[in-house]
Amino acid sequence: WGECSIHLSSKYKEATIFSIEGSYKNYDVFLKNLQHNPEFNSNINPKHLIISDSDGYAEISNDLSTMNIVRNNNLANKIKSNNYTTVKSQSLSTFIKNNNIPFIDFIKIDIEGSELKLIDDLLNSDIKSIQIEIINYNSIEENINFLLNLNKRYEFHHPISWKILNFDQIKIMVEKHLNHNPTIDIFLSKNNK
Predict the structure, then answer these.
(1) Range list of β-strands (E), 15-91
(2) How would you class 10 by CB atoms within 10 Å of its CB: exposed for 0-12, middle for 13-18, buried for 19 or more?
(3) pLDDT tens digits, residue range 6-16?
(4) Counting C-beta atoms within 10 Å of the first and last residue's C-beta, which end of the chain has fewer, N or C?
(5) pTM of the model as a whole
(6) DSSP string for 120-142
(7) CA neighbor of 132 nearest in space, from 187, 50, 63
(8) Is-contact 73 65, C-beta < 8 A?
C-alpha cells in the first residue's frame, strides 16, 4: 500500500523509487496514499504489475489484503480467494531493462511465495542490497535451497545486529523461525569478492 515507499522517499529525497503492486485493490489504495502524502511522492514511480520469471500476464488474487498471490505459482491452495484478476507480468530483468535502471541500491521483495521464481534475475542483476520475505508457503527445504543459490552472490546479515552470517547460521535461523512463524525477512548485500 505504499508505506515502505513513502518512508524511503521521506529519507532519500534524491532516490528514484519504483514501487510495484499486483493487486488492483491494493494498487488503488497505494495511489490514494500517494495523493495524501504529496510531499513524499515526487520520486515514487508506482507500477501496477506482477514481477515474476516471465513476461506476459498472470492471474493474481485481488483482495484488499497483504497476502495476494499469483494463481499459477502452485500456492493458490494456501490462501482461499474467489477473486482473481489478470494483470501484466514481467521478469525483474525486463523491468530493469524497460526502465533503464543501471543498478539497484536496495530492493524489497514481498511476493507471497513467488520469490523463488526470481533466482536467475537476482543472481544476474546489479543489486547492492536486498530485503526479501521468505514465506512458509514454500517448504523449508525449497526456501533453504533458494538462499543457498543467493549465497553465490550475496552475504546474509543478522536482522538486528547487521553482522554478516555464514550460510549455516542463516540456515539455522530460517529453519527455526519458519517452524514457528509464517514468514521471515532476510537481509542480503552484494558479495564484493
Answers:
(1) 17-21, 44-48, 50-52, 56-61, 84-91
(2) exposed
(3) 999 999 999 99
(4) C
(5) 0.87
(6) HHHHHS-EEEEEEEEETTS-HHH
(7) 187
(8) no
